[in-house]
Design goal:
Distance between the termini: 25 Å
Oligomer: single chain
Helix content: 40-55%
Structural class: alpha+beta
Radius of gyration: 22 Å
Largest sheet: 8 strands, antiparallel
Number of strands: 13
Order of helices and strands: EEEEHHEEEHHEEEEHEHEHHHH
Shape: globular
Number of helices: 10
Length: about 350
């Protein structure tokens, strides 16, 4: 983790007469497509670390009346501006007006160092969960093209539930792109790096980061900060920052209560993965702040315990679901999870409060 703070795997740029692949990586924030795609571009460059660690500090959660729990970050890239990236877009309907060869057009965009985010119908794509089952539109990030072998290289999730590099033949790509089930008002987005003349290097600000951490600890609705430039309708049930732990506890308690009535419910793993991912990246942020000379090393050691506990929590949710599949007794897992959620909240508050007051 110390060698590459921003990514887990990286592909360098390649360009030959018949093959183009733009520089990309598997970023350390990858739970959601809309965040992972742009970070797969930005996190390739360690020089962008000061921007990265100034973001992804906060989380919000939503628990609805049907006990569906969702958790997400404070940065939503399909809405928010991306500091280092230029974003251009055009609806599929408008692209259709030009009657262009979409394969050739995307080839030219890649030649011009444009990453392409496009929605496709998963029904036609073999590595997806909806292959030959459902017509379902989902985005992929086109990062390369092999003209000789006639396939695009894309970054996306598949039925293996992993963010990975995959290939789609031109024939399948066109079927998925021109599917009647894809709404033609859907935008095709093109990402490219801003010229350094246009965007100077982002400089980290310790005061800003500590201010955001204090918002996190106070459960402040961070969307209010940007309300003047970006209106966002908020759900009254949303919880912010440290208060999201309450939603985790209620969610697990509701599942336990359902057991008493004979209703066995699996745990939705994604919120727990986001929680673990957030703790990992907070620890990376603390390490980065230490390397910059802003905080003492002891906070790294203390927060590593938070990461370990978050990993155990995630593993317990997986074990619980395995027990449910076997129709085995699993209430003990729920009790342990609720207790661990309570404990990790107290410990995180204690560490971050001390650190943000230095």
């Amino acid at each position: 983790m110390r060698e590459n703070l921003l990514y887990q795997d990286k592909n360098e740029k390649v360009k030959t007469k018949t093959y183009i692949r733009l520089e990309t990586c598997i970023p350390v924030v990858k739970a959601y497509h809309n965040v992972a795609f742009v970070l797969a571009i930005i996190c390739c460059r360690e020089e962008n670390a000061e921007w990265f660690f100034s973001n992804f500090i906060n989380l919000y959660s939503n628990l609805d009346s049907n006990n569906n729990l969702s958790v997400n970050y404070d940065v939503q890239f399909f809405i928010d501006e991306i500091y280092y990236l230029n974003r251009e877009s055009m609806s599929m309907k408008n692209l259709d007006l030009f009657q262009i060869d979409i394969v050739k057009f995307f080839e030219n965009m890649l030649l011009n160092n444009r990453y392409i985010c496009v929605y496709l119908d998963e029904y036609y794509i073999e590595f997806t969960m909806n292959y030959k089952l459902n017509h379902y539109e989902h985005e992929v990030l086109v990062i390369g093209i092999d003209i000789e072998n006639k396939w695009f290289e894309v970054l996306c999730y598949g039925k293996d539930l992993k963010l990975d590099y995959r290939k789609i033949t031109f024939e399948v790509f066109k079927m998925a792109y021109y599917s009647e089930y894809i709404h033609r008002d859907t935008p095709v987005m093109f990402f490219s790096y801003h010229s350094k003349l246009y965007r100077e290097k982002y400089k980290i600000d310790k005061a800003h980061i500590f201010s955001m951490i204090k918002y996190y600890l106070s459960s402040y609705n961070f969307f209010n900060i940007r309300r003047g430039i970006l209106y966002r309708k908020e759900d009254v049930n949303n919880k912010y920052g440290i208060e999201i732990y309450s939603d985790f506890e209620i969610y697990l308690s509701n599942i336990a209560e359902g057991h008493k009535n004979g209703k066995i419910q699996k745990i939705e793993l994604l919120p727990f993965y986001v929680l673990f991912e957030h703790k990992e990246n907070m620890e990376r942020r603390i390490y980065f702040l230490y390397k910059m000379g802003y905080i003492e090393e002891k906070y790294i050691v203390e927060y590593e315990e938070i990461v370990k506990e978050a990993r155990i929590i995630l593993n317990l949710t997986i074990k619980y679901n395995m027990q449910v599949e076997k129709n085995a007794y699993c209430d003990k897992y729920l009790r342990n999870l609720i207790k661990m959620i309570e404990d990790i909240r107290k410990k995180e508050v204690n560490i971050l409060k001390k650190m943000s007051e230095t």
